[in-house]
Amino acid sequence: MRPTAPLGRRRVAVMATIDVGVYRVLVAHDPDGPYPWPGQFYMLSTVERWGGGEDDRPYLPRAFSFLGAGREGQLSFMFEDVGPGTRRLAELQAHDELWLTGPLGNGFTEPSDGRRAIIAGGGIGVPPLAAWAGELDGRGTEPTILLGFRDAAHAAGSAMVSHGTVREATDDGSVGHHGFVTDLLNAELDADDHAVVYACGPPAMLEAVRALCAARDVPAQLALEAGMACGFGACYGCVVPLRDGGYVRLCVDGPVLDGERLYLIPEDVHT
User: Fold this and answer.
1) How many domains does the chain have?
2) pTM above 0.70, yes or no
C-alpha cells in the first residue's frame, strides 16, 4: 500500500509533545498531506536551528515511521533522544514548526489464506506496529501483539499500542517475560504457525524474526529503516541485499519487505 505524497516538503505546526518513558511523542498538524498507510514514513526536520550552528552544515532530515494519524491531519511520531538530530526534535514544543515530507515508501499488507496476524517488535520499532494494529482492529482483525524492550523505562512505549492486548518481554526481566520478544514469538508459532508475522525493531531482532519465520515457512513482513538522505531513492544510502542477488532501496521499495526476499538483516540497518 502506498498513498502518493506530494512533491516537496510541507511546513507544519507542532500541536503537542508528550513524554512516554524514555521516548518523546511529537504530534503535528498536516492538513494538506495525504492520509498515510501503516508502515510508511516521513522525513522530518525543524524549521529553526536544524544544524550544529551558523558556520556548520545543516543536518540531514530524519526518517520516522508514523505512530498515528487522524483524518483531520493529525500525525504523531515517537522517537528517543539518541543524537543531535533527535535531540533537536525533542526540544520542540507546541506551536513550533517542522519541515515534513511524506508519506513515503510502502507499508504492510493484510493477512491472506485465513492466516492470523502476529505483531512482533520492540524499542523504537513500536510506531509502525501500533499504526498497523489500529488498522487491523478497524478491519475486524484482532492481532496477537508481542513487544520486547531493554527495561521498564523503554517498555513504557507499549502504552502507545492502543488496540489489542500486548504481551511484553524485557532484557532485564523488569516487565513481562524475562528474555527476548522472539521467545514469545517462537511459543506463539509453536501453538499455531498458520500466521503472518509483522515486525519492526533493532536489526538483531529483525534478523532473528526473519530466520525463525524462514525455518517454519511462515510469511513475515519486516519494516526496516536506515539513515536516509533523501527519501526518494536518489542517494542509494539505504540499500539492503536480497537473497537472489542485487539490492533494494528501503525508501522506495520498502521500508516494509517480505522476509523471504532478504538474505539477512544488515547490522547497519536500524529503526
Assistant:
1) 2
2) yes
